[in-house]
Amino acid sequence: MPAPSGTPPQDGTQADQSQSSPPQQPQQPQQSWYVAEHPPCQVSSQVTDSVAMTNVATIGVGPSYAALQSMLGQSQSQSVLMANMVSAQRQNAMVGMTTMTKGIEQIMNRRNQ
């Protein structure tokens, strides 16, 4: 069985020339974004310091934002709790007023009989 094209046979025999691939072109090195004709730029230390401070500030505010979100969630849940308490108090006052009215009505009806 002949070897696949482009690979030498493993048994030491010559590969069939009709199945061999054409000679490959030499590969050129990949070009990067850096062009060799231009020397590297000098960056001011003020620029690097400001970038570093921005990165540190961005990383440093993460915990404070998390704490802020936690506090806002707690504040909103307390607001809902207070609104529910006011509503329950109002309902209890209405039940009490209705009970008192019905009690007085029954007392007044007994005297008339």
From TrEMBL:
Record field: compositional bias (Low complexity): 17-32
Protein name (Swiss-Prot/TrEMBL): Killing trait domain-containing protein
Q: Which organism is it from?
A: Thalassospira lucentensis
What Pfam families does the database record attribute to this sequence?
RebB
InterPro entries hit by this protein: Killing_trait_RebB
Source domain of life: Bacteria
Q: What segment(s) does the record annotate as region Disordered?
A: 1-40
